[in-house]
Amino acid sequence: MRKSWAFGALVVLNCGQATAADWSFDPRVAVSGVYNDNVRLSDIPADQISVSGADVDAQLRMRGTTPRSFFEVTPRLRSTFYPSERDQEADDQFVRLSTGFSTQRTRTTLDANWSHVTMLGSYFPTASIGGGDVLGQPNPGDGVTQAGARNNARDLIEFTPKFDLELSERHSLEFQLGYLDAAYDIQVPGDTVDFKSKYVRAAYVRRLSTTSRLSLRGAYSTYDPDADATTAAYGMDALWSNQISQTSEWYVRAGLNRAESTPTSTGGSAGWDSGFGGGAGVRWAFEVSQVFVDLEHGLQPSSAGEYVTRDQLRAEWTRRITPMANVSLGARVIAETGASNQSGFQDRTYAAGTLGFDWRWARQWTLIGSYDYSLQKYSNATNNADSNAFRLGIVWEPNLR
User: What is the pTM of this model?
Assistant: First the structure.
């Protein structure tokens, strides 16, 4: 698991700095029975594999706070068990870290994520909006890969430090760096290729009111896939956001970006592409329901080893039907097309939908269930690939209030 030692060292270092903090520990364990009629999402009927069995999803959220700082780390394990299809089982590990320190005029934060995911010949993001989903910030590396006959694994590591400086009551500056490294056990040209992506972003922010702000941002990034052209991208945009409360906010973003690729010694392609980049989203809590909708468009790195134009929609609606029961409806759509200088890229579309419920029948115990539908389409494929999955399980959260 490449570079996982560096992430572990960062966690240990921050734990040492937070020893004087007030700590809370929130475990969560979910055990479910599952069925999927096409677990690899193959478009070839002879290659479609149905599985039934169970999965376990366990995490421990640890958070420490002081008057000026916080530290939070969440290790998570997710495993599937299919007695009749052992080759389709997966064991995934995740670690999410967030830490920050504030003074009267500054705020410094660091978000870091590491994951090791078993790919059953493919990688498919789910439709559910999880704790890591942030409005206006789709999870990096959430692209779409081709279904295949061999298992693969992906190690992904991400660091995002940020520094905010308040110049006055209405004016401030923000600086952000980003580093993303994806590595695959098996590299397949045009589908799963190791890559690194880095960016630097600076913004001038003006507060329009106590809740509303306007940001003018400039960014520069590089995308470096193994054995292919290196791409540099830069752009500017304007972001208008309004955070009404901890549970209600919206934003609108629009700008222009340009990407230029340079050939490598192995003969990678060269060229440039430019265009519009932007997005809009809302996260709103009503009396008995919550809504999350986020739409993003722009140039993004991909596991295919090429810069692509990616459109992504994330949406979820949750409604409380009793004080202890909720129903939810979610969707995610990802459409990737090759940039103008990436003529060999196969356009692809992936869509996922979920219909679920949860019923908290005791203080620490919750019954959950869902139906999930997935659809994948490649521009050169004869058939669409789709799957149907069902889940029923229980969740244990001893600190749930």
Answer: 0.84
